Amino acid sequence: MFAPTITAMNRLIGRTDSPSAHVTQPKAPEDVDINQGYYVHSTKLGEGGFGTVRLATHYKTNQKVAIKKMNKLKLGGDLFRVKTEISALKVLNHDNIAQLLQVIETQDTIYLVLEVTDPYILVIEC
């Protein structure tokens, strides 16, 4: 199971109560490039107006995850609303909602790394 470090989790939920939180930490390659930390399969799990969701595997843990890729240009005026929803997902913890594991944001794209909750997806041949 994917177990991010406490520092990574604190960054994920925006906590700044640790002494090192005020020091700018260099980002790990997998924090800025989705392909550094995950193998993104060709298996498409879904598609919507803002982007697509694909199955991926975390390189270090071999955990299957869903990666939602959203183009910021397509989001347009909805970018603020999407960022608000991401902030809510960071603190939300419920059995019926896929857990947000990581957010990677580049200049053009937002990637949401989500747990895979459907047991059928976990047995798909990739």
TrEMBL record:
GO terms for cellular component: cytoplasm. Its EC number is 2.7.11.1. Keywords: ATP-binding, Kinase, Nucleotide-binding, Serine/threonine-protein kinase, Transferase. Residues 39-126 form the Protein kinase domain. ATP binds at residue 69. One of its GO terms (biological process) is intracellular signal transduction. The keyword ATP-binding applies. One of its GO terms (molecular function) is protein serine/threonine kinase activity. Pfam families: Pkinase (PF00069). This is non-specific serine/threonine protein kinase. It comes from Medioppia subpectinata.
